[in-house]
TrEMBL record:
This is Beta-defensin. Residues 39-66 form the Beta-defensin domain. Its main location: secreted. Belongs to the beta-defensin family. Residues 1-16 form the signal peptide. It holds the Pfam family Defensin_beta_2. InterPro entries: Beta_defensin_dom (IPR025933). It comes from Moschus moschiferus (Siberian musk deer).
Length: 98
């Protein structure tokens, strides 16, 4: 009976223990994925180091997010309206009279 009590205590502590660690790991992973997504939205790349022509936008997990200096945010599309010229065509074919 004593062994059964020890076994149940062990199972109970093992099953309840790692849930907190898994939750913290999941939160860290989610935050890192969000930073990577923000980096890709500004057309950046997660690299080990940025070049001279790039600047550091934010950190992707451990690496910096490098964005090209000449990056411009996308502009709104311009709508172009076309004006149409109406043309009338006349026929030169003579129709026989009946």
């Amino acid at each position: 009976m004593k062994i059964l009590c020890i076994f149940l205590t062990f199972i109970l502590t093992v099953s309840c223990g790692p849930a907190v660690l898994q939750r913290k790991t999941r939160e860290k992973t989610k935050a890192a994925e969000e930073r990577k997504r923000q980096c890709y939205l500004v057309r950046g790349a997660c690299k080990t180091s940025c070049g001279q022509w790039e600047y550091k936008y934010t950190d992707c997990d451990l690496e910096p997010c490098c964005v090209a200096r000449e990056y411009l945010p996308p502009v709104q599309p311009i709508t172009i309206t076309k004006s149409y010229k109406t043309t009338t065509y006349t026929s030169n074919i003579l129709h026989p009279m009946q």
